[in-house]
Amino acid sequence: MLALAAAQLVTLVGLVVGVGGLVGRWSELRRRPCPTDRAPARGDPTRGVLYAFTLGMAPWSKESTRIHWAAYLRGAGFHVAVFVALAALAARPAWPALSPAVRAALAVVLAAGAALAAVGSLLRVHEPNLRALSNLDDHLSVWLVAAFLALTGLALWDARFAVLMYLAAGLLFAYIPLGKIRHCLYFFFGRRFFGRFAGRRGVLPHPTPPIVEGVR
Questions:
Q1: Which of 180, 174, 189 is nearest to 21 (CA)?
Q2: 93, 110, 133, 155: least surrounded by Cβ within 10 Å?
């Protein structure tokens, strides 16, 4: 029990450090000046932002995902597993009320997410283009998340892994504002800027091409 309490404290400290770091980065981003678009407005920025956060993220909306479905599905499955793991961690006190079948199903989802993370990291080692673009943070971030997913799945299967799960969670939370995982914050700034800019220019949502008589 003492080890479990200490591991839970590590998770709490990591969470405080992570949230504090993200708040600091958010404040820094808010202080930075936003460039003024001096071109005449041709569309609605609000519609552009709405599109950027909805249909703009659909796989058929981007060429990179239309031609790389396997990579898209791997990334989507990985992120789904991350959300499941975070929800499972938050609901840890309620685990005894879950049926063995539910806990086993959650463990399988998390194991699959950890496997997808491992595949992505191995591709960064063996695929020439990815290897050239990857640095230590790219690998460390993925393996930290993979360890958290795997240990949470194991803890659902066997309570003896709960201590390791909490330690992995604390380390992951503390690292979030330091490495590439902080894209969980930058994502919202990036999509909003993209939507406002392209929406104001009338590029998003994609305009319907005019019908030219005699042309089909």
A1: 174
A2: 93
CA nearest to 19, candidates 179, 177, 203, 206: 177
Higher confidence at residue 90 or residue 40? 90
Please state, in angstroms and as integers, the Cα–Cα distance from residue 98 to each residue in 83, 91, 102, 157, following that order.
18, 10, 6, 12
Q: Angle CA(68)–CA(69)–CA(70) in degrees, nearest 5?
A: 95
CB neighbour class for 84 (10 Å; exposed up to 12, middle 13-18, buried from 19): middle
What DSSP element (H or E) covers 115? helix 100-126
Q: Kindly give the interhelix angle for 183-200 and 45-52, rounded to the nearest 10 degrees.
A: 140
Residue among 110, 48, 103, 101 nearest 77 (CA) = 110
Which 3 state secondary structure label does DSSP give 204? coil
Q: Is the peptide bond before 128 cis (omega within 30 degrees of 0)?
A: no
> Are the beta carbons of 21 and 169 closer than 8 angstroms?
no
Mean pLDDT of all residues in 124-134: 85
**This prediction's pTM:** 0.81
pLDDT single digits (tens) 94-124: 999 999 999 999 999 999 999 999 998 888 8
Taking only Cα atoms into account, the Rg of the chain, rounded to an integer number of angstroms, comes to 21
- Helix and strand element counts for the chain (H, E): 9, 0
Residue 79 has pLDDT above 70, yes or no: yes
Residue 215 has pLDDT above 60, yes or no: no
d(C-alpha 173, C-alpha 165), whole Å: 12
Please report where in the chains the tokens 């406002």 appear, as a residue.
196
